[in-house]
Amino acid sequence: MHAKELLFLLGIILATGMLAGFIARLLKVPDVVLFLLTGMALGGAGIGVVDVKVDSTLNQLLLIFGSCYILFDGGASVRLSVLKNVWPTLLIISTVGVLISAFVTAYAAQYLLGLPFIFALLLGAVIASTDPATLVPIFKQVKIRAKVAQTVMSESAFNDAMGAILTFAVLGMVVSGGEFSLQNSLLDLLKQSILGIVGGAVFGYLAALFIAHEKYSFLAEYAPVVTIMSVAAAYLSIDNLHASGFMAVFVFGLMLGNKELFGFRMEQHDETKLEDFILATSLIMRIFIFVLLGSQVNFALLQQYFWPALGVVAVFMLIARPLVVFICTWPDRLAKWTLQELLFMCWTRETGVIPGALAGMLVGLKVSHSDVIASVTFLAILITILLQATTTRWLAAKLGLLES
User: Fold this and answer.
1) Residue 195 backbone zone (phi > 0: left; psi -120 to 50: alpha; other: beta)
2) What is the pLDDT of residue 344?
3) Which range (182-191, 244-253, 266-275, 312-321) has the least confidence?
4) Element spanning 292, H or E
5) pLDDT tens, 176-227?
6) Can you give the pLDDT at residue 179?
7) Which of 89, 255, 281, 316 would bridge with 332, disulfide CB 3.0–4.6 Å?
8) What is the largest CA-CA distance in the chain?
9) How many domains does the chain have?
């Protein structure tokens, strides 16, 4: 792609994204919904202005860095004082919950789509994780009770690692003809999680030290640059260690957002400048991610497998997710979950960037039945974002979970 073509493409995406965001504000719906619809209109199935291939360097750069920055923003929004009361739920739902969702979806896919079970399980693994790039912006725009909002946001950050690990474990079985090992997968998850958490904590502490320490904050003036550099460095360094880069950037944001607990404090004008920068950068990343995601929806594939795929997505949303929520919160008596909170969590599980990227990877590798997997994945993305994201405020109001 030539430089002028790239500039034109980026300009079109940003311009239409701003218009979509303005309309979303008038309609009082999360902006990611309008960004996705805008992408569908601009893509190959629409007027064909945006044509960025799934496996292109530009697409991978925007999806990876965009997801990382939104995840960092989500981590910075979470308060450790809230999470300390729900950590057992968070741990179980981010690990065991992904396995439950994958296996329930796999049995539905095997029955409705006629897939061999190993490929049905691959499908279940791809779409099992929730999407922080969708959920973080929604909870920033719709003020839900902090306990629920921060649990769901944190789940979406942590279960990405489990979803990716499970996908690659099942893919390894598909390629080698081996058997699924739950023990090996859980050990791999533990390794990836520990490395991601430790790496993110180290980067977060160093960033806070250099921008908010009483003596050593010589980079306070460059705090926005530090965040961009550290997000990229945290993801790349931990990913190169074959651990969860996404978890690292979330924990990095968590450390920076809770820096006061570690004795760091910024001047008010520097803090405001940094918050404004993160807000603007996250908005730009959201526009790029969801316009691109919408432009890449393959309607021909969707039409070919529509009805059985719709059945699988229905089981995924209406059976697998409630099972995950009620089973994984039951052991956590200290959290004192109410029925209203659990019902809200049952409905809030948008699918997005990471499952879309995993499905695109399978198509690129020409894995058997990857066309079916991609169809169900994109249908899950469309339905969960268009249906669940638009009803988040309404449901929260009905269940009495909106903050005043």
Assistant:
1) alpha
2) 96
3) 182-191
4) helix 268-295
5) 776 666 677 677 777 887 898 999 999 999 999 999 887 888 988 899 999 9
6) 64
7) 89
8) 64
9) 1
Of residues 401 and 187, more confidence is placed in: 401
Amino acid at 68: C
Estimate the crossing angle of helix 321-329 against helix 87-113, to 10 degrees: 150
Residue 390 above 80 pLDDT?
yes
For the domain that residue 126 is a member of, what is the CATH number?
Answer: 1.20.1530.20
Which residues are 144's β-sheet partners?
A: 402
Mean pLDDT value of segment 366-384: 89
Query: CB 201: neighbour CB atoms within 10 A?
Result: 16
144 by DSSP, 3-state: which? strand
Q: State how far the Cα of 203 lies from the Cα of 199, in Å rounded to an integer.
A: 6
Q: How far apart are CA 156 and CA 162, in angstroms?
A: 10
d(CA 302, CA 305): 6
Q: Tell me whether residue 84 is in a domain.
A: yes
C-alpha to C-alpha distance for 386 and 367, rounded to whole angstroms:
29
SS3 332: coil
Nearest to 104 by CA among 320, 323, 349, 312: 320
Q: Is residue 225 part of a domain?
A: yes
**Who's near 35: CB < 8 A, 6+ residues apart?**
17, 20, 21, 286, 287, 289, 290, 291, 294
Does residue 331 fall inside a structural domain?
Answer: yes
What is the pLDDT, as a whole number, of residue 178?
A: 63
Check: CB of residue 144 under 8 Å from CB of residue 348: no
Q: How far apart are CA 97 and CA 134, in angstroms?
A: 19
Please count the CA atoms within 13 angstroms of the CA of 400 that sit on its side-chain side: 3
Residue type, 94: S
Q: Is residue 19 part of a domain?
A: no
Domain hosting 199: range is 54-398
Query: How does residue 31 score in pLDDT terms, banded at 50, 70 and 90?
Result: confident
C-beta separation of 309 from 301 below 8 A? no
Q: In Å, how far are 16, 50, 57, 60, 272 from 11, measured between CA atoms?
A: 8, 11, 18, 18, 28
Crossing angle, helix 146-176 and helix 245-257, to 10 degrees? 160
Please answer whether residues 239 and 231 qualify as being in contact, where contact means their C-beta atoms are separated by less than 8 angstroms: no
Q: Is 265 left (phi over 0), alpha (psi -120 to 50) or beta?
A: beta
376 is written with which tokens?
Answer: 């169900």
Per 3-state DSSP, the chain is made up of helix, strand and coil in percentages (nearest 5) of 80, 0, 20
What's residue 70's pLDDT?
83
